[in-house]
Amino acid sequence: MNVVTNKDAIKTITTHYIDGAFVESHGREVMDIIRPTDSQVIACVTLADEEDTRRAIAAAKRAFATYGRSTKEERSRILRRLHEAVAAHIDDLTDTMVEEYGGPAVFSRSMMEAAANAFLSADKALQGLLLTRSWGKTTVTLEPVGVAGLITPWNANSFFLCAKLASAVAAGCTAVIKPSELSSLQTRAWLECLDEAELPKGLYNVIIGRGDVVGTEIVRNPDVAKISFTGSVTVGKSIMRDCAATMKRVTLELGGKSPNILLDDADLDKAIPTTLAIAFMNSGQACVAGTRLLAPKSRLDAVKRAIKEAIRAFPVSDPADPKTAVGPMVTHKQFERVQSYIRNGIEEGAEVLVGGEGHPEGLEAGYFVKPTVFVNVKNDMTIAREEIFGPVLCVITYENDEDAIRIANDTNFGLHAYVNGADVRRARHVASQLLAGRVAINGMLDDQQAPFGGFKNSGVGREFGTYGIEAFLEPRAILEA
Ligand code: NAD
């Protein structure tokens, strides 16, 4: 196809996917893709401009004229074909995520499996969703909202693309998709899978380009009815403002600073390894990372010892090595961002228990950082309030359950929370008071039928399951005389 490897082994991508075909970019700007493990340029991508974006929107609009009237059975067939297409290429998708993004191999594979399963989950949810309800002489139908703009970040590219596309397709929407330009190789690999599914032309259109060019055009274009965005709070707020002009529906999945409450009856041998896994998942570049560990003051010494012991199972190294738990940061900018937060934590008086500034020894060529745990953290310190998006865990002590709940909720975010404790009834009682879209008790848990999304600055609306599909539907009531 249009990905070629030249004699220096640098791939070039010059096309977007519009109206069922790979088409040459109208935009001319070329961007390098840099491998985070060694800072080498591994690919060049030609970025889309507003014209490419308008072509993609027009194709989605044409396709919506037919697909918007599709039946549940037709949508279900398409979802199953999408599942098969992605499931057949888990290995390739994983390898590309490891190379371009630096995702640890085991984690990357699990994300690709979840990506493929997102289509089956949406199909299951669709089967359970009543698209038509009637009583007396009133009939209510749930209608697809129209062309959906799906905008995603770089930290789990193919998963977000699959999850959003699955809900949109289940609802009967067509899509214009703008992945992060930092995920161009992963997007290309994903598109080549999807192309094999031979779906109706224009059902999904994918353009690789910058947020302030392609993203802005999608958000402002009157032919797009809905935006589903995953990314930063700053961009999410600007999208919400812009969407008001054309009254677009919006779903925003934004950042987090998730609390992880260790109740005083928790078994540290289990809870601390889980705590580190929750904090350092996806090398800490995860919106759901549990980055504030709330520990009972009375057990702080034991918690510190357990962390020092458990950290040995979280080696930072080459992400292709299946034993690696923490890979590099995605870019040099992200590396610098994490370093500046670590410096800030030290300056504000927090104590480094493990990790700290700088590269881990022997990994100076890439964007690797040291998984870092701070103790003596106060909840008003910058490192406890802002999303770092790197492997940095803050340990904050509390006096009693009430105090733990207060500190957990004292944040601008509300995406996820975690509770660990031996007495499950007590853990549930604590969980029920946390202001977060999801609360996991005693583990790192997922359920693709459960709603996903945040309170407060963590976003607007929910994804996954029937909640995710309903976000792409509008009810229409027909009342007869
Ligand atoms: P980002 O907000 O910079 O970019 C996200 C996407 O939006 C990219 O595709 C980008 O090109 C695009 N974009 C940028 N400016 C835009 C504009 N003006 N209009 C339209 N689109 C625009 O975020 P990022 O750095 O790619 O990702 C990291 C952030 O994503 C973190 O804050 C993280 O918490 C968040 N995130 C949230 C979730 C969740 O589900 N809640 C999941 C993963 C990541």
Descriptive report:
- The chain is 39% helix and 22% strand.
- It has helices spanning 50-67, 72-87, 90-101, 105-127, 157-171, 184-196, 211-220, 233-245, 268-280, 300-310, 332-347, 382-385, 401-409, 424-431, 465-470; strands at residues 4-5, 11-13, 15-18, 21-24, 30-35, 40-46, 132-135, 138-144, 147-151, 174-178, 204-206, 226-230, 249-253, 258-262, 290-296, 351-354, 372-375, 392-398, 416-420, 438-441, 459-460, 473-479.
- The strands form five sheets. The protein has a seven-stranded mixed sheet with strand order 16-17-18-15-14-19-20, with helices on both faces. A six-stranded mixed sheet has the order 11-10-9-12-13-21, sandwiched between helices.
- It is globular and about 70 Å long.
- Mean pLDDT is 97; it is low at 1-7.
- Bound molecules: nicotinamide-adenine-dinucleotide.
Name the features.
481 residues, alpha/beta, seven-stranded mixed β-sheet, 22 strands, globular, disordered N terminus, binds nicotinamide-adenine-dinucleotide
How do the helices and strands line up, and which of them pair or pack?
Layout: E1 4-5, E2 11-13, E3 15-18, E4 21-24, E5 30-35, E6 40-46, H1 50-67, H2 72-87, H3 90-101, H4 105-127, E7 132-135, E8 138-144, E9 147-151, H5 157-171, E10 174-178, H6 184-196, E11 204-206, H7 211-220, E12 226-230, H8 233-245, E13 249-253, E14 258-262, H9 268-280, E15 290-296, H10 300-310, H11 332-347, E16 351-354, E17 372-375, H12 382-385, E18 392-398, H13 401-409, E19 416-420, H14 424-431, E20 438-441, E21 459-460, H15 465-470, E22 473-479
Parallel strand pairs: 2-6, 9-10, 9-12, 10-11, 12-13, 14-15, 14-19, 15-18, 17-18, 19-20
Antiparallel strand pairs: 1-2, 3-4, 5-6, 7-8, 8-22, 13-21, 16-17
Helix pairs in contact: 1-7, 2-4, 2-5, 3-4, 3-6, 4-5, 9-10
The chain binds nicotinamide-adenine-dinucleotide.
